[in-house]
Amino acid sequence: MLEELQKSAMMAHLLDALEDGTDIGHYGRLTFAMVARHFLDEDEVIAYLQKDPGMGETEARALVLQVQGKDYNPPKRDRILEWQQQQEFPICPTPDDPDSCNVYRELQFPEHVYEHISGYYEQKAGNAS
User: Fold this and answer.
1) Among 56, 76, 110, 127, which residue is least crowded by beta carbons within 10 Å?
2) Is the separation of the CB atoms in 43 and 50 below 8 Å?
3) 65: enclosing H helix or E strand
4) How far apart are CA 59 and CA 56, in angstroms?
5) DSSP-assigned letters across all residues of 32-59
6) What is the mean pLDDT of each run of 10 residues along the chain (129 residues)?
7) Residues spanned by the domain of 58
8) Pair 31, 83: CB distance under 8 Å
9) Can you give the pTM of this predicted structure?
10) Are 34 and 113 in contact (CB under 8 A)?
């Protein structure tokens, strides 16, 4: 499902950088893992992460297992831009475009991702009352 993942300009940017052996930074790797796990199998995500010079197999596997174990949702655009400020590599190649780097607009995730987000906000609203 690599073709699906590449429908996001940001994810295509991250994939290209990894293919070129570029260090995409901690948050770039985290973003990649959080999104790619919904489109690629675990071994594919690990293989891509290992193309980053700062990531060996053990580190890549640990990151993927952490993201899966905590069932992290893909990050929203504002979180990606916030993370980008904390590293050199530009996760979002076009941060000035308000429509860019919004993976929820660019990609179709499995239904459980949307249910998880909905459940979170329902629980948060219930706690506030």
Assistant:
1) 127
2) no
3) helix 57-69
4) 5
5) HHHHHTTTS-HHHHHHHHTTSTT--HHH
6) 92 98 98 97 97 96 96 93 97 94 90 67 59
7) 2-128
8) yes
9) 0.88
10) no
